TrEMBL record:
Protein name in the entry: Thiol peroxidase
InterPro entries with a match to the protein in the record: Redoxin (IPR013740), Thioredoxin-like_sf (IPR036249), Thioredoxin_domain (IPR013766), TPX (IPR002065), Tpx_CS (IPR018219), Tpx_Peroxidase_subfamily (IPR050455)
EC assignment: 1.11.1.24
NCBIfam families: PRK00522.1
Catalytic reaction list: a hydroperoxide + [thioredoxin]-dithiol = an alcohol + [thioredoxin]-disulfide + H2O
Species this chain originates from: Brachybacterium huguangmaarense
Active site: C60
Encoding gene (name): tpx
Misc. remarks from the entry: The active site is a conserved redox-active cysteine residue, the peroxidatic cysteine (C(P)), which makes the nucleophilic attack on the peroxide substrate. The peroxide oxidizes the C(P)-SH to cysteine sulfenic acid (C(P)-SOH), which then reacts with another cysteine residue, the resolving cysteine (C(R)), to form a disulfide bridge. The disulfide is subsequently reduced by an appropriate electron donor to complete the catalytic cycle. In this atypical 2-Cys peroxiredoxin, C(R) is present in the same subunit to form an intramolecular disulfide.
Task of the protein: Thiol-specific peroxidase that catalyzes the reduction of hydrogen peroxide and organic hydroperoxides to water and alcohols, respectively. Plays a role in cell protection against oxidative stress by detoxifying peroxides.
Cystine connections: C60-C94
Amino acid sequence: MATTAFKGTPVHTVGELPAPGTAAPAVDLVGVDLSPVRSADFPGRRIVLNIFPSVDTGTCALSVRRFNELAATLENTVVVCASRDLPFAQARFCGAEGIENVVMGSAFRTAFGEDYGVTMTDGPTAGLLARSVVVIDGEGTVLHSQLVDEMSHEPDYDAALAALR
């Protein structure tokens, strides 16, 4: 179990993020068109997982916008934004914001949060995914992982980018 915080109050997760140097769990999400979004869909490509509670919150929306900008500049890399939002909410957000460079994935009916250790188990956000970033190389090995210490904070974009260099 790992610990983050929501407005200064400790919140626990179901497990730990996969550590750098370990094999990444398979990504299994639901796309905005209800089709599967899986790591197997991106063979040989690096994957940046931008994991967050809900696209309908300010910090989460900021992270999707920022990773959308960054994704346009990354070679052989796909950015997958994962939350428990329904695919319809993710599609609405992307359409309204002009988000085109990331892949949105919903964990609403998958074990993604448990597989990555990021489902929050207590506090007002219990059941949602904790804000995290995981960078995976083209062979499926974790290069970088970060559980953000406070849900209102953005992830360390520079550290994620550095892992890709």
